Amino acid sequence: MREALEKIRSEALAAIAAAQESAALESLRVRYSGKKGELTGILKMMGKLSAEERPKMGQLANDVRAALEAAFTARAAELADRALAAQLKSEAVDVTVPAAPISVGHQHPLTIVINEVRTIFEAMGFETVEGPEVEYDYYNFEALNTPPNHPARDTQDTFYFSDNMLLRTQTSSVQVRTMEHRKPPIRVIAPGRVYRSDAVDATHSPLFTQIEGLAVDKGITFTDLKGTLDLFFKQLYGPETRTRFRPHHFAYTEPSAEMDMSCFKCGGKGCPMCKGEGWIEILGCGMVHPKVLENCGIDPNVYSGFAFGMGLERIALMRYDIDDMRLLFENDLRFLRQFR
Length: 340
Ligand code: 2NL
Prior knowledge:
Layout: H1 2-18, H2 22-33, H3 38-43, H4 53-90, H5 109-123, E1 127-128, E2 134-136, H6 137-140, E3 165-167, H7 172-181, E4 186-195, E5 207-217, H8 222-237, E6 243-250, E7 253-262, E8 279-288, H9 290-295, E9 304-311, H10 312-319, H11 333-336
Parallel strand pairs: 1-4
Antiparallel strand pairs: 2-3, 4-5, 5-9, 6-7, 7-8, 8-9
Bound molecules: 2-{3-[(4-chloropyridin-2-yl)amino]phenoxy}-N-methylacetamide.
């Protein structure tokens, strides 16, 4: 029996020292020290020993069990350390490596200009309103006093979905909707995309961006229109900017005018930018036609208003010295990155 115990001790210690993985070590523990293991098997034969032999063998068996336990525990710790070291090595992260650069986007030049225009008008008490691009004929033309035979309504000029639905040709439709559900005083600007059946070239696009403005209250006069627009352009282009108004015709305003601003390049002397004129035509405007107020449920005998509309692409092209409108729509990042 002594020999058997010694054999188990030396075999088991050698096997434990040779175990390379914790799973292998665990099966050795089951094999030698487990409930049905070799050591237990031998201890079951203790009953056959003489009374004199039994305590000696008992002592030896306990020594062997203790030696195996100590060896198992030590080897398990070694293997765990080794596994941790291997994991730390394979999962090592070099925290000093510089991070990959994050690409931060920026605003499109048109968006920059829209926001500048909004900021100036909002400081003057105007609120920004929006509305649908797919619009009823009524809001785009009829409510704006534009009769059915008017050239602007021609299918050659406007994109129609059906007899009474179209892509809006101006954001006036948004202002008509605003007047329908709000009572004066009203001070709004309506920026957004509008559509006209134009061929694409350096200065034309079937889609462009417009900002219209509208003020309706008791006692609004053409003076308020001139003062508001003059201040707006002084803020946008600098305090030396001058404006002038020329008579014009729109179906939805009476009287109507076109507005020029002094050339921001030459200050009015005349240069290639203003084609020697000293002035640049920049917007259309006028006093809201009484019929338009009436169509929107506002009494023209009590209230009056002014309105204006301008294309934003031209302002963006001039502001950034861009010579072709198509560049604003092609989304070529090499071009757009210049405006961050
Ligand atoms: C232009 C001229 C203009 C308006 C737009 C307007 C809106 C309402 C009532 C009356 Cl609700 N008028 N808008 C007035 C005058 C001119 O735009 O050249 N647009 C590109």
